From TrEMBL:
Record keywords: Signal
Species whose genome carries this gene: Oceanomicrobium pacificus
Keyword Signal: yes
Classification of source organism: Bacteria, Pseudomonadati, Pseudomonadota, Alphaproteobacteria, Rhodobacterales
Name recorded for this polypeptide: DUF995 domain-containing protein
Extent of the signal sequence: 1-21
Top-level taxon in the UniProt lineage: Bacteria
Length: 116
């Protein structure tokens, strides 16, 4: 009986612990494509729609169009009028049933968003 009670407490603690929201898994090429293609990511100040065609639509303070692609484990995008592609390492986590994404550029700057 004590063993069952301890097991029950252990399960309750594991379920209540916010560890899952704190663990970030880096996404590989296939995971990036599956996670983003045809979906939108909401940030604090904007939303990015990743169309399956490779088009990217950013809405917020500005309404911009560009392109996105996945290469060497990174999400890259180029907005209209820009010469260079910007690339980010992307990690995923879950919190309260929402898939969260963390974008990190080459300088180490991070920005979090959520799949809509």
């Amino acid at each position: 009986m004590v063993g069952i009670r301890i097991a029950g407490v252990a399960i309750a603690l594991l379920c209540a612990h916010p560890l899952a929201a704190q663990e970030w898994q880096r996404l590989n090429d296939g995971e990036l494509l599956t996670t983003l293609s045809g979906k939108s990511v909401a940030f604090d100040d904007r939303s990015n729609a990743y169309h399956s065609s490779g088009r990217l639509h950013e809405t917020g303070a500005r309404d911009l169009w560009g392109y996105w692609r996945v290469e060497r484990g990174q999400l890259c995008h180029q907005m209209r009028g820009e010469q260079a592609w910007s690339c980010y390492r992307v990690s995923a986590s879950w919190r309260d049933g929402l898939q969260l994404l963390r974008f990190r550029d080459d300088t180490g700057r991070e920005q979090d968003g959520r799949i809509e």
